[in-house]
Write a structure and sequence with these properties.
Elements: H1 9-14, E1 22-29, E2 33-35, E3 50-61, E4 69-80, E5 84-94, H2 111-123, E6 132-140, H3 161-176, E7 180-181, H4 184-190, E8 193-199, H5 205-208, E9 226-227, H6 254-270, H7 291-298, H8 302-305, E10 310-318, H9 342-347, H10 350-361, E11 405-406, H11 409-420, H12 427-445, E12 453-456, E13 492-494, E14 502-504, H13 519-525, H14 550-554
Parallel strand pairs: 1-11, 5-6, 7-8, 8-9
Antiparallel strand pairs: 1-3, 1-12, 2-3, 3-4, 4-5, 6-10, 8-10, 13-14
Helix pairs in contact: 2-3, 11-12
């Protein structure tokens, strides 16, 4: 773990939030708890042992001398196995009261900076050698996720489906660019590499390019950081298994409901034990054979075809030395095709089955003294940080990467359910609901009603329409521009070498148009100004058509 991984969340947030404003953060988390496996196991195998660690962050402000009110909340679930770490952004929602931050100056919304900082802070210390880490989420537009009634007061700005997909791509782009691009020559020299993936069911590659961040324009063809594809094959230990074993089951995920319907075909086909092995499905779906066919069918699902788009986003971090597999199927999976694994070679052959039956019949009776086993003590449900190991074969949970309150899973679930029963339809009601939730969570953790961390922003000069400059791989440095309008007396020009640098000229460096004097000025005085670039002639400069004689007109 590097020194940058030991930084506290409040210190990282203060450097990315606008100066002059104070926020209060309430962060709760759970210890890694054994949960259901994300991926369906291969036929004949047991589900992979999986642990889940939940993190919930709520942000409040205190405008003026009023009571504090919640403005934003985000939940991230961290799934870990022996070979993969997955950060799933479960929910994120705002109340709309962040507009109260405006105190006469136009400031940028801090929600994107909070989301990027929080996700990056969770992901940075959880990189393991020879193990990939992926950030996964799906963007689906909805009026409210975590704050009931927040759409009723009229101040909440709800993004549409396209705007939400773009917002999440821009939010995750700084996290992606903290690491090197995924090229063969940089894997060994620069360590961890990163790559972004996006799939919008029903949209082709040309239409999907419109959702990518504008920073993609600075990437070269060899170092393209965002692609229209999925990374499901390179995330699995069995990359050429059936798609059923490659697609994860996340909670409240549009594709998870479709997976349950497809899995019903497998369960119904496997119930008939009298069928021959050639007729059984062997863990395969009947109608969907490849991952590409699965995403094509997702475009016709109700979640993706009811007039709204749904975007599936992945950020994959690959440690040095790991090889990639082909993203697309080399040959369609057949239901009668067996997967060449050590399990099928050693346990599925008739010879091995007959040997196991012979050993079971020849089992010797037990003899000798009976030695009682030591009783197993269940792990304590205490919220102490020393009640469970920090690092095991299946997960890595750094002590500095946990919430201010460490709750058992049941208490954490009660805290989220308490939030969903509150009301945020009005400022006064929302303030009371915020105080009630903080008090209830503090009682659950045994910390009382006062907890949370106050963070004051330190980022100077951040206004609406600005983006913090970042070093773009393969390109130049993009400097901060002020606002969307062009400043008076300022000029923006691009470097002639085409390196993508943007310079801002001072007022003394602006080249003005020379003033015209004398007769030229008098001649130009009669010309009206036209911003469209079309010159209008005056009445003295219009050439009229010559009048024809009367005799020619009669003829």
């Amino acid at each position: 773990m590097s020194n940058s991984d030991n930084i506290l969340l409040q210190d990282l947030l203060s450097t990315n939030l606008p100066a002059g404003f104070a926020f209060k953060f309430y962060h709760i988390s759970t210890p890694p708890t054994k949960c259901a496996a994300l991926f369906s196991p291969l036929p004949g195998r047991k589900p992979e042992k999986t642990y889940c660690e939940s993190h919930f962050l709520q942000v409040t402000i205190q405008p003026g001398h009023a009571h504090q009110v919640a403005i934003f909340a985000i939940e991230v679930l961290i799934y870990t196995t022996a070979h993969l770490t997955t950060l799933f952004v479960s929910k994120a929602d705002s109340t709309g009261f962040g507009i109260l931050l405006d105190s006469g100056q136009t400031t940028a919304s801090p929600l994107r900076a909070i989301s990027s900082t929080f996700i990056s802070w969770l992901a940075r210390p959880r990189h393991r050698p020879d193990r990939r880490l992926v950030i996964s989420l799906f963007a689906r537009a909805q009026g409210q996720y975590l704050f009931p009634g927040s759409v009723e007061h009229g101040k909440k700005h709800v993004l549409d489906d396209r705007g939400l997909v773009k917002w999440w791509c821009r939010t995750l782009d700084p996290v992606l660019r903290e690491y090197a691009s995924k090229t063969a020559e940089k894997r060994e020299s620069e360590g961890i590499s990163s790559e972004g993936f996006l799939i919008v069911p029903g949209q082709d590659k040309h239409e999907t390019n419109a959702f990518f961040p504008v920073t993609l324009k600075h990437d070269s063809a060899e170092q393209r950081r965002w692609i229209n594809d999925h990374p499901l094959r390179q995330l699995s230990e069995e990359p050429y298994a059936h798609p059923r074993c490659l697609i994860p089951h996340f909670p409240d995920d549009p594709k998870a409901r479709y997976l349950l319907e497809l899995d019903d075909e497998v369960s119904e086909a496997s119930m008939n034990i009298h069928d021959s092995p050639s007729k059984k499905s062997r863990g395969a779906w009947r109608n969907v054979k490849t991952l590409e066919q699965f995403w094509e069918m997702m475009a016709f699902r109700q979640e993706c075809s009811s007039g709204r788009l749904v975007g599936f986003i992945w950020i994959v971090f690959t440690p040095p030395g790991m090889l990639d597999v082909a993203q697309h199927d080399t040959s369609p999976f057949s239901p009668t095709t067996t997967i060449a694994t050590p399990f099928t070679a050693s346990r599925s052959s008739p010879h091995c089955i007959s040997q196991r039956r012979r050993k079971q019949k020849q089992a010797r009776p037990l003899r000798g003294p009976i030695l009682p086993r030591a009783p197993k003590i269940k792990p304590s449900t205490s919220t102490s940080t020393t009640s469970y190991p920090h690092t095991t074969r299946h997960y890595h949970s750094p002590p500095l990467n946990r919430g201010a309150l460490l709750l058992p899973l049941k208490s954490y679930t009660r805290a989220i359910e308490a939030l969903l029963r509150l009301d945020y339809s009005d400022l006064a009601i929302a303030s009371a609901s915020t105080a009630k939730w903080i008090r209830e969570v503090g009682v659950l953790a045994g910390r009382g009603v006062e907890w949370g961390v106050v963070v004051k922003g330190k980022l100077e000069g951040l206004k609406d329409g600005e983006r913090t400059g970042s070093s773009v791989a393969g390109g130049g440095v993009v400097n901060i521009l002020s606002g969307k309008r062009k400043a008076c007396g300022g000029e923006v020009r691009e470097d002639g070498q085409g390196n993508g640098e943007v310079h801002r000229l001072e007022g003394t460096q602006v080249r003005k148009k020379p003033k015209v004097e004398g007769a030229a000025a008098e001649s130009d005085a009669g010309k009206p100004m036209n911003p469209g670039g079309i010159t209008t002639l005056g009445s003295l400069l219009v050439r009229k058509k010559a009048k024809k004689p009367e005799n020619e007109a009669v003829a």
